Amino acid sequence: MVERILEQKKAIVSYASDHDLPALLTKNQWGLLEKLVALLQPFESVTKQISSADASLADVIPVVTALQVTLERHDNDAGVQTMKSVLLQDIKKRFSGMLDEPLYVVATAVDPLYRMRLFSAEQQQQVLSMLIAEVQQQCETRDVASPAAKRPRLDNSPHTGIDNVLDELLGVSADQPSSPAQAPPTGDVSEQVRLFMLQPNIPRQQLATSWWRDNAALSPDVAAVAQ
């Protein structure tokens, strides 16, 4: 609604002037509305991404992290700093246990787009333990050489500020080559995880399913978890 009001700013100001309305937003108030829209825009982007039909569990930790980083920055936020601070604290509280949930952690770790890039050095050992435990559990009950085909992600939405933050955090360029890894497969779970983690991350414009299709033989039991 606020964004719509800003779009109609000229018409509102013109109407108020022609009809001598008793009250009208000041220049400072218009500026605050613009900053409010800019502040809430990342939330809209994240909501659309996580709510899309092709959303993945692997995206939860990355988008929450990117949202926190965005709110921690102080770019043209005079007048909305208090609101930004409250939103940041609420997000940290709401998602405080996110990294203790194996479902989210493992999904992020087995995505060739993310792997360990968004986890701190202190968190990485815990993440590896969760991943190895999950892979061991999977290989005890399944014998999958490659992941089943999934519906590819269709990302036709325009690049937003939250996307820019994610690109910055991941540090992978769109023109970086992503060729199939050349390494002998092994039955040892820890070695499969190690080989997977040694591979370069793929750019966000590429599909994780395509990477796993080409590289499932490298770490077949990790691929089984990724599917």
Structural write-up:
The protein has eleven helices and no strands. It is mainly alpha-helical and 227 residues long. The protein has one domain. The longest helix is centred in the N-terminal third of the chain and has 25 residues, at 27-51. Residues 144-152 and 176-184 have low confidence and may be disordered.
Write the layout of secondary structure elements.
Blueprint: H1 2-7, H2 9-18, H3 27-51, H4 60-72, H5 81-94, H6 102-109, H7 121-141, H8 161-170, H9 189-198, H10 208-215, H11 220-226
What key attributes describe this structure?
58% helix, single chain, 227 residues
Please sum up the structure shown.
The protein is built from eleven helices and no strands. The chain is mostly helical. The two termini are 40 Å apart.
| Category from helices, strands and their pairing | mainly alpha
Q: Which percent range describes the beta-strand content?
A: under 5%
Number of helices: 11
Large-scale geometry: elongated
